[in-house]
Amino acid sequence: MTMRGGSNIAKLMGRGTSRLAVLWLIVVAALAAGAGWWPLPAPDQIDWAQLAQGPGGTGHLLGTDNLGRDIAARLLHGARVSLFVGLLAPCIGLLIGGLLGILAGYYRGAADALIVAAIDTLLAFPRLVLLMVVAFVFGSSLFSLTLALGLVSAPAVARIARALTLRLAGREFVLAARSAGAGDASILLREILPNVLMPLLVYMLVMVGLVIVAEGSLGFLGLSVPSPMASWGGMIAEGREGLAEHPHISLIPAAAMFLTVLAVNLLGDRLRGWLDTRESQL
User: Fold this and answer.
1) What is the rounded CA–CA span in Å between residue 74 and residue 181?
2) CA-to-CA distance for 52 and 49, rounded, in angstroms?
3) Predicted confidence (pLDDT) per residue in 204-238, tens digit
4) Integer Cα distance of 69 and 202 in angstroms
5) Whole-model pTM?
């Protein structure tokens, strides 16, 4: 009775946290999508009369930063950057890494050795240096930042896709399709890809949180989107010098980033648990 009751409580808590996570992500996405429509000042508008004003100041719900810019407005516009990069960069990594991993695991041989060598090389290459190289070649922009983070995430996705494909290549349904005369393209698209895609999508959701943190770290180092475009990492960096006197400048965007990444991770754990249960029943 105790164990069953504890299991039910754990399930209810898991569902409750998952719903809160989804609700938070919906709210953040809605606020970010309508950032230009809310009754807030422009994110780069300076209020010289209220520099580093705390939350609740006149006309500024969350206060202002060191330059008198509205933190709420910059927070919503910064959410656009974090969500755009956080969603698109893992998609780039999934597309490139998933394709390479599936090809390596299915064909093996020379193709596998070549792709694995490329993956190991990218994993050994310092990621910060790779991001700086991409930023130098393509310039400091939202496009180059997204592309760089997508390339950085591709090797890990390729490893997972390769491992899944190696496990599936010898399964009965693949052997049956090959015996029936199906070609490699048909087997890859109809037999391998559908079974590899769901675990990769779950992993991609986990990668969203990691990419958001990575973008924030790059923004803190000044390697994210160029000023005056707002980003959560850039907002945290802008308030570090006056952290003792005006902690809200850094803590508010840090809290938004923390809650968003936490919500993504909770949702990813929930989906991963569902996927493990589904595979155990097959």
Assistant:
1) 58
2) 10
3) 888 888 888 888 887 777 777 777 788 888 888 88
4) 38
5) 0.81
